[in-house]
Structure prediction request, 407 residues.
Amino acid sequence: MRRLKPRLRSGLTRDDGLSVTVVLVSMLALLGVAAFVIDVGALYEERRQLQNGADAAVLAIAYECAEDVTACQVDPMTTAEAYVDANARDAMASATNITFDSAERWVQVDVETDSPSGLLLPFFSQVFGNLGFDVTASARATFGYALSTPTIPLTLSTCEMDWQLSDVAYLGGGTTISDGDGVWEPDELTRLLTHLESPNGGPVAMQFFTKVPPGAQATEFPCLAKKNNLDAPGAFGWLDETACRSTVELFTWNLGGSNPGGNVPNDCKQQLLTWVGSPPLPIVVYGPVTRATGPLYSGDPAGHPNCDNVPTGDCDNDDDEDGAAAQGTNTSYFPVTYLGLRIEGYILSGNPTWGQGGTCANPPFNHPFTPQVGQICGYIHATGVSVGEVGGGPTGTVSIVKLIPVP
Prediction:
């Protein structure tokens, strides 16, 4: 009987050759996927760093422009490069262009990858012919003084502010910041801003009272005396609020209910404690209605008398001329400027358990900080916020700088 012996086979079968081909194709596919994942990931990371640098650079320049729209355009590239480089981990980023629109009050910074080719070099996809990615980013910011912004719901009087600033020497020489006539005029705002921004100037001490303190002469408080020692225009008041915040547009009557200075809204009683010693807060200040024969406020977009929509319908009404119509909880205010106010202390009648701030002694404040009269004391600062509507010119000591979409 013949035995069947298995035939020895050498080499590779057809199936083996097919397997090698599949493996090679799969490896190429995996390499392509890896190249895509790694290189695209690097692309997005580069774009994120460039965008962060553009955002930081444009905000820094915009803050400078909010203070001086001419000076900020002298050498903006140095500022931009510093922020762009600081946000690029490999320091391979460059600001390519800076655009200003002084009329519309915005600035734009354009950024790109900084390499000899101007491209972000890929890690793996070069084997597929990809020479690099063109990565850019742009950011635009608006800047200017606040026309409308969320504030703590406290309103002060330009009469009182103007009177107190008449005791502060103007650094330019020859005069004081204000003339003390109770009207807040554009040149007085200019002098105040110059004083706040000067190395030899700085914050200005201010006190606001609800009425003339006992034993004091009415002549010492001319604004308060106008109202028989009560309420507006010398005193301060509380606006309608939600969660202890109000949004008020300047040069438009703020109608509706309010509280006198000593009656703190319930929503604000605990927050008031946290305001003492905190960074400067935006405060709206009310003032006289502008008439054809009166001053026009700095930054007023209308540029004309604001006798429209006066609560009493009569622009010659004494209350309306002061910028505060009616009294008590029915008071309506005509806001004309924003201040950055760092609150140092307070005493509010009706809430004696809150006590005193303890830091409002005179000097530097002009009057004793006594518990018999409701009052708030603090310092005027130049400060900035990032929310609100930007005005066309100086409206106070509060500026707005914020990112806006790039068209």
